[in-house]
Amino acid sequence: MKKPTRNFDENKLIRYSVLVLFLIPAILWIGLKSPLECAIFASLDDGFYYPKIAQNFLRCGKFTYDNITVTNGFHPLWQITILPLYLVFPGALAGLRAVYILLIIIGLLNTYLYLKICEKLKIGIAGLFIGMFFLFLNFRMFTLWFCLLETSMVLLALQILALSWIKWEGKRNAFIFGLLAGLVFLARTDNVFLLAILGLYISYRTGKQISIRKGVIEVLKYAAGIAVFAVPYLITNLVYFGKILPVSGARKIRLSGEMLSRFPRVIREFVWFWSSRVSYYLGVGNIVLYIIITGIAILAIGAFIILKRKRKLAVSGVITNKLLPFVIGAILHYLFVAHFMPTEAPYSFWYLIQEMAVITFIVVGLITDISNSFPKKIGRLIDVVSIVIVLFLLTAEIVYYPKYIEKRYSEPYDLAEYIKCNTDCDELFTCYDSGRLSYFSERNFIAANGLAGDYELAILASSDSRFENIIYRYGVDWVVLKIEEDKYREFGGSFEYASGVFQLYPGCDCRLVLLRTTDFHHSMIN
Fold first, then answer.
1. Positive or negative torsion for Cα 388, 391, 397, 400
2. Mean pLDDT calculated for residue range 119-125
3. What 3-state DSSP class applies to 22?
4. Could you tell me if 345 and 338 are in contact, meaning their C-beta atoms sit under 8 angstroms apart?
5. Which of 184, 148, 514, 144 is nearest to 356 (CA)?
6. Which helix (H) or strand (E) holds 55?
7. How many CA atoms lie within 13 A of 141 on its CB side?
8. Rounded to an integer, what distance in angstroms lies between the CA atom of residue 166 and that of residue 175?
9. Residue 248 burial (CB < 10 Å; 0-12/13-18/19+)?
10. Higher-confidence residue: 509 or 161?
11. Residues 513, 411 contacting (CB under 8 angstroms)
């Protein structure tokens, strides 16, 4: 007699329990904390480009970060989404709180879609909760969804597309599916690899099942749906900037002919990326970390082999088959980022939303198969233990929160307040990472990293003499630098303001300093 599968459909109360699990900490966090503390806890500097551009657009009708250069250095879906918020709440703190509330709403939608996908894929309770913790509820991922970048919107668009694919596999209406894919493109333009794979899959499947002619028609309808959103955006880039790529993408992409020789490094960086996240969360050193990872890997491989021999990879197999285009798309996307944006791959984990989502669903499928391979009572015990572990980890995070905040330096916000109170509003500043400073000081900053300007600024920022170039080209009045302690001691008399010492990363003690451009020396940053 076939043993019943303990899947997520057994008890729909679990769905609402998990939603509450996300809702309570999110609402408490936003409701009890000031927008400033929320920003210190979760936000990344680049994330503040979006609200700053929104404020400037509503003031002058142009997409500009610095009120000088017109920019397309943003992903359009998220940028357009937050514009109405700043129309209603133009103030810095009020607008920021509105954005965080919007992110809670998007987080709830993402959680609901995750649960719906789990339901469709028949994910078990143990896998459901472990996946929930991995994708949403640990500090590293929770801060990712509230970092003010486009990440929450990317996951939302990807999950809508994935749920549509699982339910219909593009068979209902290829044009409508293409419209959803177009939104995925606007959410992050480098999702194009996934969209291409889906198009090939639609064409191949339809051509094989019906006819080649029908396959061509279906893929053209799919492409037309994408074009509704993608073509106006690309034409706008071409007309106003002379290139179809956003300036931020063009600034980061580095073409290289050494793809094969870089492949071992790609693998090492991938392992480092995930191990560093585990190390950060658990607070363990490399030796303990590698023992944990090796043990988990051995258990996972052993479970996979045993289940495969017993032909019990039911859920894992369904996930792999149903989401195969998404798996291939994630692999291609990671190879692209690792090869052509090598400085971003190991550090900028907000690039890897596709990869994290795909890995999550594969892992929860394997956990479900492991649970279902045991007798029913033992499987129930695995479910209960998994829920208890997740609740314990959530409690530990709440207790650990004060220590976590200590790691998040607040010096940029202190400097922003100083600039706001001690400089004229028409003075111009420049800084490499200027998002938080520009937003909270309510001053105009030229982004010396070249990510939030036009192509001319991107070229100036790519030079070793970026600060000199920017100061001369735009008539900058003030420079903000992040300098190490020995440089501070060498040039201490040149600074109008210097923050306290903070640790940028282990072993690197830094200060933020403010100085007049007339006091700037290139040797300060060497």
1. negative
2. 85
3. helix
4. yes
5. 144
6. helix 49-60
7. 21
8. 16
9. buried
10. 161
11. no
Q: Is residue 336 part of a domain?
A: yes
Residues 312 and 267: their CA atoms lie apart, in Å, by 30
Q: Does residue 41 sit within a domain? A: no
- Reply yes or no on whether the pLDDT at 2 is more than 50: no
**Tokens read off for 317:** 């197999």
Cβ contact 266:260 at 8 Å: no
Q: Which of 374, 399, 392, 395 is nearest to 306 (CA)?
A: 374
Q: Say yes or no: 347 and 399 in one domain.
A: yes
Q: Identify the CA nearest to 497 among candidates 516, 523, 476.
A: 516
What domain range is 347 assigned to? 8-32+72-406
- 138, 148, 41, 42: which is closest to 95 by C-alpha? 148
Q: pLDDT at position 30, please?
A: 65
Q: For residues 361 and 274, is the Cβ–Cβ distance under 8 A?
A: no
Number of domain units in the chain: 2
Whether residue 45 lies inside any domain: the answer is no
Angle between helices 76-88 and 174-187 (to 10 degrees): 70
**3-class state of residue 478 by DSSP:** strand
Are 402 and 501 members of one domain? Answer: no
Residues 374, 267 share a domain: yes
On whether the CB atoms of residues 235 and 228 are closer than 8 A, the answer is: no
For 475, the 3-state DSSP assignment is coil
From residue 404, how far is each of 28, 148, 209, 437, 445 by CA, in Å?
A: 17, 19, 55, 22, 29
Which residue, among 79, 139, 141, has the nearest Cα to 114 in the 3D structure? 141
Q: Judge if 423 and 283 occupy the same domain.
A: no
Is-contact 456 462, C-beta < 8 A? no
Please check whether residue 484 is in contact with residue 502, taking contact to mean a CB–CB distance below 8 angstroms.
no
DSSP state of 64: B
This prediction's pTM: 0.88
Is the per-residue pLDDT at 257 higher than 60?
no
When pLDDT is averaged across residues 241-256 and rounded to a whole number, the result is 80
Q: Encode burial over 168-202: b for 16+ CB neighbours within 10 A, e otherwise.
A: eebeeebbebbbbbbbbbbbbbbbbbbbbbbbebb
Residue 381 and residue 334 in one domain: yes
Domain contains 65: no
Residues 416 and 387 grouped into a single domain: no
